[in-house]
Amino acid sequence: MTFPSDLEISRTARLLPPDDVGASMGIDPEHLEPYGRTVAKVDLEAIERRADRPRAKYVVVTAITPTPLGEGKTTTTVGLGQAFSHIGRQATVAIRQPSMGPTFGIKGGAAGGGYSQVVPMESLNLHLTGDMHAVTAAHNLLAAVIDNHIDKGNALGIDQHNIAWRRVLDVNDRSLRNIVGGLGGKADGTPRETGFDITAASEVMAVLALATSLADLRARLGRIVVAYTAAGEPVTAEDLKAAGSMAVLLKEALKPNLMQTLEQTPVLVHAGPFGNIAHGNSSIVADYVGIRSGDVLVTEAGFGADMGAERFFNIKCRNSGLTPDAAVVVATVRALKAHSGRHKVVAGKPLPEDLLAENPEDVHAGAENLRRQVQNVRRHGVSPVVAINAFPTDHASEHKAIREVAEEMGARVAVCTHFTEGGKGAIELAEAVDEAASEPNDFGFLYPSDATLTEKIRTIATEIYGADDVEIAPAAAKKLEGFERHGFGNLPVCIAKTHLSLSHDPKLVGAPTGFTFPIRDVRASVGAGFVYPLAGEMRTMPGLSSAPAVERVDLDEDGQVVGLS
Amino acid sequence: MTFPSDLEISRTARLLPPDDVGASMGIDPEHLEPYGRTVAKVDLEAIERRADRPRAKYVVVTAITPTPLGEGKTTTTVGLGQAFSHIGRQATVAIRQPSMGPTFGIKGGAAGGGYSQVVPMESLNLHLTGDMHAVTAAHNLLAAVIDNHIDKGNALGIDQHNIAWRRVLDVNDRSLRNIVGGLGGKADGTPRETGFDITAASEVMAVLALATSLADLRARLGRIVVAYTAAGEPVTAEDLKAAGSMAVLLKEALKPNLMQTLEQTPVLVHAGPFGNIAHGNSSIVADYVGIRSGDVLVTEAGFGADMGAERFFNIKCRNSGLTPDAAVVVATVRALKAHSGRHKVVAGKPLPEDLLAENPEDVHAGAENLRRQVQNVRRHGVSPVVAINAFPTDHASEHKAIREVAEEMGARVAVCTHFTEGGKGAIELAEAVDEAASEPNDFGFLYPSDATLTEKIRTIATEIYGADDVEIAPAAAKKLEGFERHGFGNLPVCIAKTHLSLSHDPKLVGAPTGFTFPIRDVRASVGAGFVYPLAGEMRTMPGLSSAPAVERVDLDEDGQVVGLS
Predict the structure, then answer these.
(1) A479 and A413, same structural domain?
(2) For chain B, is the Cβ count within 10 Å smaller at the N or the C terminus?
(3) Is A203 annotated as a binding residue?
(4) Quick one: which residues bind ATP (chains A, B) (predicted)?
């Protein structure tokens, strides 16, 4: 018997009406706006109205440094959420909305997997309630206003060689990475080089994720720096009178989307998935809703603990004022083996046979990555729990090896089989998280807001990534000076680097030391509220493969979606 | 006292829950999917389930040749729908969804006006249920697949100089009209010239409007011709294996959106507004729903009767199998005066004073346009009713002049004040339409499907536009031959010309004769199901003005939208 596909499992789900899902969170139906029969938006008024309800425990799910395949962090987030109901606790799950570009590219969908999924997976993977499209519309309206401003005389004196705002689309389209626009005749704009990023990478998406209210969203949009004048002064969306319309386009998108898991656990889906040049976490307003529901709010942070969790602590929590009670660090046998440096995992190819053979030694050899990521969590005063996300190809001795490492560090640990078993496969994990979250909390930021940008970069690179030193390219250093001068110095930093290593170099597996961390460039997402130094080339517009999912997705004779996985 | 703004009036509306609006049409709540509290999508299953209900009268609203300001066709459509309830009849209204590009450009909204509006106007003008975004996503996915196919070896042998498929966005952005994409390095695609149209102009939008079912939508998407090989053979979306994913992206968008007027008349809003290179009518599936509801279905066709109504008869009705019972021809004093050739109306400028002065003579002098458009309706065997859309600046003598012209042609006629009075201002019109629609029906197409494309063009140009002759440019003639050879010859034609004249020349007002109608180029929307010859340059991507609505639209302190009008 073959294990059913995610889409097949998703189809068997018995879904509660959204009002019932909301009721299980104590949300009044008057604060729910239905979008189709299975999804509802939560009105932001619910946040204020529920402010006096008891606060749930706040648990972030992060991971060791993943392989290019990912280590099942969303699946574990969903599985953990489901598991709490098996131990008499009520959980809410918060995740980001998948991007349609990758859905039709290599992935074919991203909603958890197996028996730990958010359903209906077609809704989650396609359009959902249109938030991603609203971000596209708001972003590109601002882009049109910039070019129009230049065409109509450029009263603000925008330096056409110093425009930071590109355009966005939620599609994998490499042909749009670099374009020359404004061609044609005199009435067709001013020719200049520009390009498109995928919508998830838009600063508008980061604004949506970090806004604490509609008024805060409006203010952040106004602060977006789109360009500089010849004198080097920033030009904002407010200067261009575009921020009001952008806020209008986003006012529904700011309402979190309420869905459910296969086991009817409530799930708040909100904001996009981009974790390279942005902070890669679901939205603050979703967490504001979830933190006043049930016993536990389980929220997911992107990539490994050096990336998503560090930004969760230092960017998201700094903005929201919420403090976490525990952090789950997802680990897999395959990733730890890869961190031994003895195996290579390539996206789109089957795992090498020697990686699949029973070999606890390799797990031990790669365990330094797990140790460092657990430390990274502890560095913020948060209790770590190691979740061993089990695969059918794992061996008991290998799980035992991970347990030993975790226990030796004094961290709680649990083997999880939620992919094949749903919530009951993560009961041990839920119990461990429940204990960890009940310990006294000692949460603190890694750096103070009033440190300089350079100090912040150095602190993250040395204390979290394990670098000996930081080398900032002269042009980047000059830009950092400019940012301090423009008053952006108090912003947190979001370092854009590979997620495949603790360092800047994807080839350095395990827990590298003795390296100098390079900053090649630096940019400011002033509206979202962070500065992002770049430690390498960041791809912000994916392409399609030679056999993309788009070729397999279709409607069957009954009008049902096939080919999403 | 100043007359309140459209947005202010819209805010005063007492809205029925969508289920109650549906119930008034006899639609079972199980066939309604709520999108927020005020809009629902109608499941297409409702069409089959309601097939044995009595058929409503089918009334199309068209107009004389408009000025650049428009003559209130949507407002009249809404007002007429509202008026029927004042004479004991129940009507459903069908209109197209406004495009957000113009909403943030010059217009600031398009939902009817005054006391004849579709509400909530913010929902209608912004995103609605995301159909426009779904068209954008499906269109651009196909574009990405085309370029990816070329990058990955071009197995289908696409001629890169003969790619018909551009990209689309729902924004007024002249800088995107002409671009070079695929720049950068080897991994960033293949450089080539292309560009963006506004989403409403997408062939995918025309497919959505003309599809008769989900299966038919899927089939039409597959037939879209995106390019030609070096040998001149068409390459389709099916050849590129993209049509299945496109259909998946559009499956919710194919469900019509149910809204209501200020007087709670049900309104089906569906498909986009583009009427230049497309047929410019609301969707067939919306009319399939509306035709089995109440006593009358009032549907709007774009521009004057030479454009939207001709295509309504010969493209839309040919596809749907529905036959109209009456046609309303909207006329205004200002437009008829402009057709005298003695006044000039310019968009964005106040009307000239001499046009506003009482002058029934000028109305008579421009009346030939009304006569011709009434004839154009009659040419299809349909009963015309002239609706005089009254403005506060009109004089009774001028209304009388229009009445005389209509009566002299044996057409019913009514003065309407629905803008200031709502439905009761259009009671006389509703009574006239009710009578006209009850007359024996003699509907027929202007040309048979098996006429050649050239014959079809000639028939429309001479019999509808009033041309003496047609001159087809040699390159266009050659393309027409190719279309016949590829089997596209049985498609109807949708002539792309100015909407500001019965002829190809916007300066020729009234009812010009003695001209030769030029065809400069010709293209095929094979998926949508028509060939469109071009009688001039068609702008398919608008730009922003120097003071666009985007600068005025914002949120007020209560989070309410301001600045839409």
Answers:
(1) no
(2) N
(3) no
(4) 67-74
List binding-site positions of B for ATP: 67-74
Tokens standing for residue B156: 């289908």
Test B141 with A180 for CB contact under 8 angstroms.
no
Answer with the one of A438, A472, A506 that is the final residue of a domain.
A438
ipTM of the complex: 0.96
Number of A/B CB contacts below 8 angstroms equals: 230
* B145 within a domain of the structure (yes/no): yes
The CA distance from B24 to B14, in Å, is: 16
Question: What's A441's DSSP letter?
Answer: P
Q: Is A73 annotated as a binding residue?
A: yes
Chain B residue numbers touching A187 (CB-CB < 8 A): 174, 543
Hey, of B141, B199, B554, B565, which one would you mutate to test binding to chain A, going by the most A CBs within 10 A of its CB?
A: B141
A107 in Cβ contact with A126 (< 8 Å): no
Sign, CA torsion B205/B209/B213/B219: negative
Q: How far is B408 from chain A (nearest CA, A)?
A: 46
Question: Would the annotation count A356 as a binding residue?
Answer: no
The secondary element (H helix, E strand) that includes residue B92 is: strand B91-95
Cβ(B516)–Cβ(B469) below 8 Å: yes
Q: What is the CATH number of the domain that holds B499?
A: 3.10.410.10
Could you list the beta-strand ranges (E) of B280-383: 296-300, 326-331
Euclidean distance between CA atoms A553 and B345, whole angstroms: 51
* Euclidean distance between CA atoms B502 and B505, whole angstroms: 8
Which domain range does residue A39 map to? 6-129+253-438
- Which amino acid is residue A494, in one-letter code? C
Q: Which of A130, A147, A187 sits opposite B130 (nearest CB)?
A: A130
Nearest 5°: CA angle at A240, between A236 and A242? 100
Q: What would the two tokens of residue B300 be?
A: 């709007």
Region at B349 (left for phi over 0; alpha for psi -120 to 50; beta for the rest) = beta
In tens digits, what is the pLDDT along chain B, a chain of 565 residues? 578 888 889 888 999 999 999 999 999 999 999 999 999 999 999 999 999 999 999 999 999 999 998 899 999 999 999 999 999 999 999 999 999 998 998 765 678 899 999 999 999 999 999 999 999 999 999 999 999 999 999 999 999 999 999 999 999 999 999 999 999 999 999 999 999 999 999 999 999 999 999 999 999 999 999 999 999 999 999 999 999 999 999 999 999 999 999 999 999 999 988 778 889 999 999 999 999 999 999 999 989 999 999 999 999 999 999 999 999 999 999 999 999 999 999 887 889 999 999 999 999 999 999 999 999 999 999 999 999 999 999 999 999 999 999 999 999 999 999 999 999 999 999 999 999 999 998 999 999 999 999 999 999 999 999 999 999 999 999 999 999 999 999 999 999 999 999 999 999 999 999 999 999 999 999 999 999 999 988 889 999 999 999 999 999 999 999 998 7
Which residue in B36, B244, B555 is closest to A553 by CB distance? B244
DSSP 8-class letter at A444: -
Any residues with CB less than 8 A from the CB of A439 and at least 6 apart, and which? A326, A383
Interatomic CA distance for residues A33 and A21, integer angstroms: 13
Nearest to B555 among A244, A553, A555 (CB): A244
| A421 and A478 share one domain | no
Whether the bond into A120 is cis, omega within 30 of 0: yes
Q: Who contacts B325 (Cβ-Cβ below 8 Å, separation ≥6)?
A: B57, B58, B59, B382, B383, B436, B437, B438, B441
Residue A199 assigned ligand-binding role: no
End-to-end CA distance of chain B: 18
Residue A562 resides in a domain: no
- Integer Cα distance of B181 and B189 in angstroms: 8
In chain A, residues with a C-beta closer than 8 Å to the C-beta of B39 are none
